[in-house]
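Milestone M4 deliverable, item 7.
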Amino acid sequence: MTPVTWSRAWRDAARGFWAREEPGGHFTTSASALVADRLAAIVHEVDTRLGHPRSLAIVDIGCGDGHLLSLVRERCDGLGARARWIGVDLRPVRIDGVESVVAESPCDLAGAPWTGVVMAHEWLDEIPCDVVERDARGVDRVVLVGCDGVEMLGPSIDDDDACRSVGVDAARVRAWLRLWWPLREPGDRAEIGEPRDRAWCWMSDLVGAGTAIATDYGHVRAERDALHHHGTLSAYHAGRLTRPIPDGSMNLTAHVAVDSCAAARRGTSITLQRDEVPSSPFGQGDSAADVERYFAALRLRDPARLGGVAWLRWDV
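Output delivered:
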């Protein structure tokens, strides 16, 4: 295959991967009872703020098999028939009482904008994006990749025509890099977060009244400058972190520039998962469930791992 941009190769590979695979076979997410507790609390907060509307939609974008949505639903049974539970993914969600929408998001969704809560858990990091690298002469160039994972440096982002020939809007790339991830040294790389910014705006546009929430591994400018000189593009296969190859056999992912997303939709707040998920005191119960909850809370609040997951929130 002729090398193409990472965004194109990633999109094609992801379609094949998610047509066959389940997330649990390749990586661990923070979708859990404690996260569902917090999301359910937000659903109740929104319901109260909106005056208990006759119809309240709870929509999960990129919901997979609907596991997290079903956990939230269990904690919101008091909403009764007023609640509509909607799962959006590439494959049908087969859970009684959940409306399944088969679609590749972002896209037009019938019924939107909704009154209620639109959420996406570890979905933005799945949005394909282009990769740019600074070469030995200090020129920022689009990275091209083959289906075997072999990369080559493509056109300079200062060459609009050459970038257009590989499907890249050079002006948008230059503008985004300048604001959010300027490269400094040869070998420095960045994932262009502009498609994630548009995806977050799309999510919030799905809400007519209520709240949009996206939770994801992310970074802000200071972290990129200090820690991510070579980008964050990676892959998971059978539970192991591996070299990213866009052949459809693995989950491709890159952390989200959450500050850029927040700036794209005015009014967006950013918090961290360790602040959203409460601690679970040890010693207040001796059952296996109490002990399990205590250690689950520790994992979700660990600042070096799941506790660093960012929560984007927008209310209207």
